[in-house]
Amino acid sequence: MKINMNIAKIPIIGGDNMKKSLAINFILFISLFCIEWQPAGPGGGGAMFVPAVSPHNPNLMFISCDMGGVYRSTDGGTSWHMINFRQLKNSIACPPVFHPVDSLTMWDDCYRNWRYYINISTDGGETWDSVWRSPRKILALHCLRDTPLCVLASVQDSGIYRSVDGVSFALTYRVKNVFKFDENDSGVFACSETLLLRSTDRGVSFSNIPLPAGITASNEIVDIAASGEKLFVLSPSTLWCSSDCGISWRTCINSSSYERGNFQFVRAAGNFVWVTTDNSGRKQPTALLSTDGGITFSEVFFCNSSWGDVPNLAHGWISLDYSCGWGGAAIGFTICRTNPKIALWTDMGRALATFSAGTSWAAVYTEFADTGSRRDGAKWRSVGLEVTTSWDLYISKTRPGRMRIAYTDISGAISDDGGATWQIAFEGIPTTWRNTNYDLEYDSTTGILWGAFSGLHDIKGGWSANFWNRSGHGGVAYSTDQGKSWIALHGGLPDKPVTSIAIDYTSPPTARRIYAAVWSDGIWRSTDGGRTWERCSRGLDCGSGTSTAHGPNTHMVEVKVHPTGTVFALKTKYIRPDYIIKNDGGLWKSTDGGDNWECISTNVADCPPVSWIDSAGEHSWADPISFVLDPLNVDHIWVCAQNCNNGKVQGGLYETTDGGRNWTRILRIYGALTLTKSTYYPNTFYLGTARNGIMVSTDGGVTWSEITNFPFETVTKITEDPFDSNVIWINTFGGGVWKGYIHGTGIINKNEKYNNMKCTISIYPNPFNNAISILADYDATIRIITINGRIVYSGKIAKKSRFIWYPRELNSGIYILEASAGNSKIYRKVLYIK
Predict the structure, then answer these.
(1) Residue 257: phi, psi to the nearest 5?
(2) How far is CA 61 from CA 126, 331, 345, in A?
(3) What is the rounded distance in angstroms from the CA atom of residue 288 to the CA atom of residue 299?
(4) Stretch 725-733: mean pLDDT, rounded?
C-alpha cells in the first residue's frame, strides 16, 4: 500500500496568505519491505543518561547514551529501539518532555555538527524534526502540564526561552545556567546551582525566591522537584522541603544519616518523593523513597548483600560478571509522574527499573537467556539497548556458531549460537589490559586466535587518548578455544596498549612471524609464534618509543601483512601541547620482514603542510585511522582518514595504485574510519564513517551512497558473514554491534521480530504557504491538527483520486499532518505554515 502526495505548481487565485506559487513535494509511503537491522550483544556496558517515562503511557520510555544513541521502548523496557541519528542524537542534559494532552507529541534537545537544536516528535518518538536552533547548549527543557501549550528551554550563559507553539522560542528571562525546571500548584520553578526562581505567569517572568539557609557556594543545589503545594530542593548533604514557595523551609533528610553517599537526584509526584545517592558513601548507593510527602524515607534499592542489605535486584550480567560497583550509582533517574511507583535508573553500564515502588528492581538493559539461576558466565540476549564501543568481530569457520566481539570497557563477549546469545569472556586477560580488545586475528593453520588488548580505550579515531602524554597498559594474548579464554604473552613486549596484530602467512607455522602495533611505541615482531618479541621500528620515525611533548610521533595504530609478505604499518595523530597536530601520521612499508621501513605517504596532494605546524614540510595525513590492502596487487591500497583541527580538512577515503607514489582522495567526508571490500559482490565496498553511518559503493569506489536507515552514526568495522552472503555485521563506536541482511546490494528483512510496516513522510519545503495536492494509491484519511489537538481539517481521499487543499484559514505556526489507510497505523508528521 502506497500513498503519493505530489505538489505541483498550482495557480493561486485570491487569498491574502497566498502570495506566490511554490513547488512543494509531499512523499508519504508505507512499505512492507524495509532495510532492517538487528542489534546483537549482551546489552548495556556504557554510560546512560536522562531517562524519561511518558506520563500518558508508562510503557513508553527513553534513554540517551553519551556515545550518540537515543533509545525508545514501548513495552516498559522489555525491548528498546535506537532512533536513527539523522532524526535525533543523544543528550546527557535533557530528557524528552511530553505534551500535556497529546500523548504522541514531545520535544527533546539534539546536538549535531557542533550545533544545538530542539527537536519535536508527533508520533510518540518514532521520528523527529528540528524546529529551533539554539544559540548555545540547551541545559533544561520543560513542558507545562496544562494547556494552552508552553515549552521552556534553558540555554547556557543566556537565559530561559519560551514557546507557545512548540516551534519558535523567544528569550523571556536572562539568567545563567538554569539546569532544571519543575512545577506545582504554585507555579513553575527553575534553578541553577545557587539560584532558585519562580514564575506565576507560565514562564513569562521569573523572580527569585529564598533559598534554604544551608545552600552555600560549597553546598550547591543539585536538583529540585515539585508536587502539589510542595517544593523540594536537594543539595549533596540535605533535602529541604517548603510548602509556601520558600518563605519557610524544613529539613527532610540528611545524607550523613545513611552513609550511602551524597544526594544526587530528587523526583516528586503526589505524595511520592524519590532521592538517589552517589558513589561517595561507606555503603553502596541506593534510592530512598517517601510515600508521605517527604516526612519519612526508606532505602528501597539494594544491589548486593554488603552491610546486611537484602538484594532486591534481578541482576543482569554487569553486576554478576563484574560487580555492583561497576555500574555504580545512578547518573540518570526518573519516575512516571502519573504512576510514581515506576522509576527508571541508569548508571555507568546498566538501566534498571522498578514498577513496585522499589520493592523489586529489574535489569532492563539485557535479557537472561540461560538455564538455571542468574549468575556470572551465563548467557544473555540483546534487548536493543546496545551502548558500547566495539572494534572487531570474529566468526569461527571451524566451530559452528562461535563468535567473539572485541569491546571497549567490557573486553569481549562470545556466542555459541551465531549471535543469538552472548557470554562475557575475559578469562586470562590481565586486569590492567582488560578494558579494550582492539583486534582479533585467527591463524587457521595453528588454530590460534590472537588478540590485541589495552587498558586505554578509544585510541582509534579518538581524541581523548591521542595526547602525547597519555599512556596505558596492554599487550598480546592468544586463545586456543576461539575466544573464550586467553593466555597473555610477555616475552619482551612492553606493557603498553596494543591496537593491531597481524600474521605473516608466508612464514612457517612452527616459526610463525607475528607483528603487533604497540601504540605509543612502534611495531614489534615475533618470529617464534609469539614466545619472544623484538622491536622492529627502524625507519618508522618513532625514536626509542618514548613519548615527549614535541615528538617523535609514536602512535602506531595498525599493522597488516600482504599475501606477498610485505608489511604495512599506519601511524595516527599525535596531539602535542596546545592541541598541535602535525601532518606526521602516515603509512609505512617494509619488504624485509620489518627490519627496515619506508614511508609511502609523503606525496598526498590533498594533505599539504601548514607552515606554522608542519615545520619539516610534512605532506601526509594528520589523522589516518585504518587501511586496506588489495590481496591481488601489493601496490593497490586504500587509507581511511579523519578531519582534525588546525585547518586540516583531510577526512575521506584515499587510494593509491602505484604503491604510494601518488594518492587520490576518492571520497571527501568528515571521517572515513573503516573500509571493507566485498568478497561476494563485484566492485562493492562498504565504508564505515564518523558521521554518515555506512556508505556503499557498487562501482569500485567511483560513487557512494548512504544506507540511510542504519541508525548509528559512527562505524568502526564491517564484516561479511563467511557462511551467508546475505549477512553483514557492523561494529560501532558506542552503538554496539548490528546484524544486517543483504540481497545483492540491497537490504531485506529476514527477522520476523522487525518485520513491521514502516512509514516515512517527507515534506519539502517546510514551512510552506501554498497548497497541498494529495494523490492516494489507496483509500486514505487525512487530518491536520493544531499542536494543542484541535482538528482543522479532516477528509477522506478515494483510491487513485487527487485532492487539493488550500490552508487559507490557518494562522502561521506548527501543525500535525496525520495519514492513515485502511486499518493501518496512523502516521504523523510536523507541518509548518508560514
Answers:
(1) -75, -15
(2) 12, 17, 12
(3) 4
(4) 93
Contact status, residue 423 vs residue 378, Cβ threshold 8 Å: yes
Strand 772-776 to strand 758-764: parallel, antiparallel, or no bridges (unpaired)?
A: unpaired
Which of the residue ranges 460-474, 633-647, 744-758 would you say has the lowest mean pLDDT?
Answer: 744-758
Total residues found in the chain within this entry: 834
Identify the three-state secondary structure at position 768: strand
Alpha-carbon distance of 708 to 214, in angstroms, equals: 53
Q: What is the pLDDT of residue 305?
A: 94
- Does residue 106 register a pLDDT over 50? yes
Q: Is this structure's pTM higher than 0.70?
A: yes
Residue of 209, 214, 196 lying closest to 247 (CA atoms): 209
What radius of gyration do the chain's Cα atoms show? 29
Q: How many CB atoms lie under 10 A from the CB of residue 244?
A: 12
Q: Are 390 and 419 in contact (CB under 8 A)?
A: no
Q: Shortest CA distance to 411 belongs to which of 396, 395, 433?
A: 433
Structural contact between residues 384 and 79, judged by C-beta atoms closer than 8 angstroms: yes
**Three-class secondary structure of residue 510 per DSSP:** helix
Instruction: Check whether 357 has a pLDDT greater than 50.
Output: yes
**Are 48 and 384 in contact, with CB atoms under 8 Å apart?**
no
Report pLDDT digits (tens) over 502-523: 999 999 999 999 999 999 999 9
| φ, ψ at 15 (rounded to 5°) | 95, 120
Placement of cell 522541603 in the chain: 241
Residue 633 C-alpha from the chain's centroid? 37
Bridge partners of residue 187, in order along the sequence: 184
> Residue 772 has what pLDDT?
62
Kindly write down the DSSP assignment for every residue of 565-600, as one continuous string: S-EEEEE---BBGGGB--S--EEEEESSTTSS-EE-
Residue 418, all three cell numbers: 551465531
Find the distance separating the first CA and the last CA of the chain, reported in whole Å: 32
Tell me, what's the pLDDT at 288? 98
Nearest to 762 by CA among 29, 8, 21, 22: 29
Q: Is residue 771 very low, low, confident or very high in pLDDT (cuts 50, 70, 90)?
A: low
Burial class (CB in 10 A: 0-12, 13-18, 19+), 536: buried
Look at residues 379, 382, 404, 377 and name the one whose alpha carbon lies nearest to residue 391.
Answer: 404
For the purposes of burial, counting CB atoms within 10 Å of the CB of 617, is it exposed (0-12), middle (13-18) or buried (19 or more)? exposed
Tens of pLDDT, residue by residue over 779-800, are: 778 888 877 677 888 888 777 6
Distance CA 251, CA 272 (A): 17
Stretch 686-710: mean pLDDT: 93
Report whether pLDDT(59) > 70.
Answer: yes
Rounded to the nearest integer, the mean pLDDT of the chain is 89
Cell of 237: 548533604
Spell out the alpha helix ranges (H) of 91-247: none
With cut-offs at 50, 70 and 90, classify the pLDDT of residue 811. confident
Which is it for the CA torsion 601, 603, 608, 614, positive or negative?
Answer: positive
Q: Which three cell numbers stand for residue 640?
A: 581511511
Q: Rounded to whole angstroms, how far apart are CA atoms 329 and 344?
A: 13
Q: What's the count of helices (H) and strands (E) in the chain, helices before strands?
A: 2, 69
Q: Give bridge partners of residue 198 from the DSSP assignment.
A: 189, 207
pLDDT at 701 over 50: yes
Q: What letter does residue 671 receive in the DSSP assignment? A: B
- Averaged over 449-455, what is the pLDDT? 98
pLDDT reading at 383 higher than 80: yes
248 CB burial (10 A radius; 0-12, 13-18, 19+): exposed
The pLDDT of residue 432 is above 60 = yes
DSSP state of 237: S
User: How do beta strands 187-191 and 474-479 pair?
Assistant: unpaired
CA 88 to CA 64: how far, in whole Å?
A: 10
